[in-house]
């Protein structure tokens, strides 16, 4: 057996399982579940026409539950839709400017 085939065999049999286990441990469990979908803070703010402070006031009041994944603030889609259906979230409309 030459060195390259030995190295390839070693990588596949020894290193690959170690790397796969390490990646599974490193990736947050929220991302491993494919059935959950999330909106970013920015997406929620754009959909509701609200500012970041208003977004965080909804979080502080318990209307929305945030999840931090890899430094990003996310809201689960089902949680967002529940709050909208319960009319806990309001889409702000700015009145046109008067001249």
Topology:
Blueprint: H1 3-26, H2 29-32, E1 38-40, H3 41-48, H4 52-61, E2 66-69, E3 72-76, H5 77-85
Antiparallel strand pairs: 1-3, 2-3
Characterise this structure.
This protein has 99 residues and is an alpha+beta fold. It has helices spanning 3-26, 29-32, 41-48, 52-61, 77-85; strands spanning 38-40, 66-69, 72-76. The chain has a three-stranded antiparallel sheet. Strand 2 (66-69) and strand 3 form a beta hairpin. The longest helix has 24 residues, at 3-26. The model has no long low-confidence stretch (mean pLDDT 82).
Poorly predicted spans: none
Question: SSE string, helix = H, strand = E?
Answer: HHEHHEEH
Secondary structure tally, helices:
5
Oligomer: single chain
Please give the alpha-carbon distance between the first and last residues: 85 Å
Query: Beta-sheet strand percentage?
Result: 5-15%
Taking all Cα atoms into account, the compactness measure Rg is 22 Å
Helix content: 55-70%
Number of strands: 3
Shape: elongated
Mean pLDDT: 82
Structural class: alpha+beta
Taking strands numbered 1, 2, ... along the chain, how are they ordered across the largest sheet?
A: 1-3-2
